[in-house]
Amino acid sequence: EAGVAQSPRYKIIEKRQSVAFWCNPISGHATLYWYQQILGQGPKLLIQFQNNGVVDDSQLPKDRFSAERLKGVDSTLKIQPAKLEDSAVYLCASSFNGNTIYFGEGSWLTVV
Amino acid sequence: QQQVKQSPQSLIVQKGGISIINCAYENTAFDYFPWYQQFPGKGPALLIAIRPDVSEKKEGRFTISFNKSAKQFSLHIMDSQPGDSATYFCAASSGTYKYIFGTGTRLKVLA
Fold it and tell me: Is residue B37 less than 8 Å (CB to CB) from chain A?
């Protein structure tokens, strides 16, 4: 079974530029998550989708971050404009029944 | 209320020793407590998980101990090996499948 796929793996951008990350969850997983993991910290939930509906986006900085999950499968997370403090690993995860979430390898963002 | 507090931040253990990582929570609505293992450059991977209806769960060298009244749970790694060197995260979730993660413990097992 294929795991959660993310791209790009690494991205370096200047502050105020924009960036987009893509995620393809495990086939059949209705729940999709985007987490932000700053170096040395635990993953912090940005947004949770159930199929193509948003369940929780309370910690998503909506003035600069946006996410969508078209057709309840793939998802895109966008940051515009990026700030230095957005430097982090953006982890996509998916779950079939909520008991186990499977993470991708992450997209590493450095904002300079 | 939504926090999961994890300690210690880092841990060094001799090969063959016992590694113990502790977590505490406040929200009594949490009903699922997984532990994740993360190697450098990789995403976290589920290691072991427990529900509050049992006080202990063991899988190989990994054991979760759960104290519902104290709202604490811990991970014990028996016979720790250098290959166990990684960062460990505890987490908690409720019926909405929203997971809250601890801050992580960097474990180093000396050969």
Answer: no
pLDDT in the model for residue A71: 85
How far does the CA of residue A97 sit from the closest CA of chain B (Å)? 8
**pLDDT of B96 above 80:** no
State the pairing for strand pair A102-103/A88-95. antiparallel
Distance CA A48, CA B80 (A): 35
The tens digit of pLDDT for each residue in A27-66 reads 999 999 999 999 888 999 999 999 889 999 999 999 999 9
DSSP structure class, residue B55: S
Strands A88-95 and A107-111: antiparallel
Bridge partners for B73 per DSSP: B23, B66
Instruction: Write the CA distances from B94 to A42, A66, B10, integer angstroms.
Output: 18, 25, 27
